[in-house]
Amino acid sequence: MINNAENLTKKVVNSDVKDTLSFGKFGIEKESLRVSESTISRQKHQASMGSPLCHRYITTDFSEAQLEFITPPLIDKKTGLNFLENIHHFVSHQIEDEIIWPFSMPPFIESDTDVPIASYGTSNLALFKTTYRNGLSHRYGRTMQAISGIHFHYSLPKQIWKSSLFTDETAVSKKLRAKIYL
Fold first, then answer.
1. Which of 90, 94, 115, 178 is spaced 20 to 30 Å from 67 by Cα?
2. Is residue 29 within 8 Å of 68, Cβ to Cβ?
3. What are the phi and psi torsion angles at 32 (to 5°)?
4. What are the residue boundaries of the structural domains of the chain, listed by start?
5. Residue 131, Cβ neighbours under 10 Å: how many?
6. pTM of the predicted model, to two decimals?
7. What sign has the CA pseudo-torsion 87, 93, 98, 101?
8. Are 148 and 31 in contact (CB under 8 A)?
9. How far is CA 98 from the centre of its chain?
10. Could you give the CA distance from residue 141 to residue 135 in angstroms, rounded to a whole number?
């Protein structure tokens, strides 16, 4: 039985399915701050970019000024990078007097209150997201939350779950998949 990631890794490396790993899907999340005159923007998320609560590809992260670009799960890496580039290009044209800050570390922040917490509206989900971010600000500080980065997501190809690696499993359940990913 496959009971941990290390065990799975060893089995994959020593199996005929290792060549299928390149057919897994990946996604990218890129966070970037909107900056105006070397300070974090105080402007609201522009409506022309869609609702940060509902848009699948353009949203905000911790701060109202912290954009998050999200690609769908894709197999082809070039398509994923082109998708991300197209989002970036589109947003660059929407933000007018601002720029998309290219660095992970934010520009100079004099006070935590200079980092506006993201606002998603008045629905229950929107208020939950804002409340959650308020909690993060109390726990870690707004300045720390303004650090931006890139997140890479990968999912194993479906062929893996149907392979001989799992012959001792009666069914590849969601619980087993979650255990392997963790």
1. 178
2. yes
3. -150, 145
4. 1-24+157-182, 25-155
5. 11
6. 0.85
7. positive
8. yes
9. 22
10. 9
Cα–Cα distance measured from residue 61 to residue 42, given in angstroms and rounded to the nearest whole number: 15
Q: How far apart are CA 51 and CA 156, in angstroms?
A: 31
Task: Give the CA distances from residue 48 to residues 1, 30, 127, 135, in Å, rounded to whole numbers and listed in that order.
Answer: 51, 19, 22, 29
Distances (CA, A) of 72 to 13, 53, 81, 125, 140: 28, 17, 11, 22, 30
Q: How many CB atoms lie within 10 A of CB 153?
A: 12
Q: Is the distance from CB of 100 to CB of 41 less than 8 angstroms?
A: no
| DSSP β-ladder status, 66-70 and 99-100 | unpaired
Phi/psi-derived region of residue 2, left when phi > 0, alpha when psi is between -120 and 50, beta in every other case:
beta
Which tokens in the block code for residue 178? 């979650």
